[in-house]
Write a structure and sequence with these properties.
The complex is a heterodimer of chains A (112) and B (114). By secondary structure, chain A is mostly beta strands. Chain A is 0% helix and 53% strand. The model of chain A has no long low-confidence stretch (mean pLDDT 93). The mean pLDDT of chain B is 94. In chain B, strands 2, 4, 5, 6, 9, 10 and 11 form a seven-stranded mixed beta sheet that branches. By secondary structure, chain B is mainly β. At the A-B interface, strand 4, strand 5, strand 9 and strand 10 of A face strand 4, strand 5 and strand 10 of B.
Chain lengths: 112, 114
């Protein structure tokens, strides 16, 4: 089992709709969770971090964390074509506090 | 500088050649990470520095890979006797805090071994 799992996509969402990206992780005692956006040919860009159960909102982005289910998600409201990118879920496991472990990413495409 | 700076942006090496990749982290950032990213994959952890101390090198794929950060700022990732499977984008990230809190990435070095 991979430490961080994501559906590779592509996930196609119409412009203006809500895009929902999901991620599961295997280390139950993980403490920190991140979503990075990566445009083609560019480096990952941190867009959200979340550390406690529940929702965290920042503009059009909402991160949701459920530690009991070992599940973290990212919602993007009012999706724009500029949101088309690969979204990487990342976890900082307590067992390896110096690492951030990344999933393989979900490719999101916003169609006009 | 304002962000993490990596050089060179692109490197083509002949198989068997040694390469050195440089990372200049955000000023004052304690933590520095090196990652390797293959096409279509997420970044894979290579090594972690806290200031000048290399606290985790568990991700380095072989003893051909070596990293250093002698003064706790600039870091160099060296790959000896490059192989074709070393072709990837090498990403450096830095973080203000110790451990792995929010980390900010440089633009990466794309290494192609021919």
């Amino acid at each position: 089992q991979k430490e961080v799992e994501q559906n590779s996509g592509p996930l196609s969402v119409p412009e203006g709709a809500i895009a929902s990206l999901n991620c599961t992780y295997s280390d139950r005692v993980s403490q920190s969770f991140f979503w990075y956006r990566q445009y083609s040919g560019k480096s990952p860009e941190l867009i959200m971090s979340i550390y406690s159960n529940g929702d965290k909102e920042d503009g059009r982005f909402t991160a949701q964390l459920n530690k009991a289910s070992q599940y973290v998600s990212l919602l993007i409201r009012d999706s724009q074509p500029s949101d088309s990118a690969t979204y990487l879920c990342a976890v900082n496991p307590l067992s390896s506090a110096s690492k951030i472990i990344f999933g393989s990413g979900t490719r999101l495409s916003i169609r006009p | 500088g304002a962000g993490v700076s990596q050089s060179p942006r692109y490197k083509v090496a002949k198989r068997g050649q040694d390469v050195a990749l440089r990372c200049d982290p955000i000023s004052g950032h304690v933590s520095l990470f090196w990652y390797q990213q293959a096409l279509g994959q997420g970044p894979e952890f290579l090594t972690y520095f806290q200031n000048e101390a290399q606290l985790d090198k568990s991700g380095l794929p072989s003893d051909r890979f070596f990293a250093e950060r002698p003064e706790g700022s600039v870091s160099t990732l060296k790959i000896q006797r490059t192989q074709q499977e070393d072709s990837a984008v090498y990403l450096c990230a830095s973080s203000l805090a110790t451990g792995a809190r929010e980390a900010f990435f440089g633009q990466g070095t794309r290494l192609t071994v021919v």
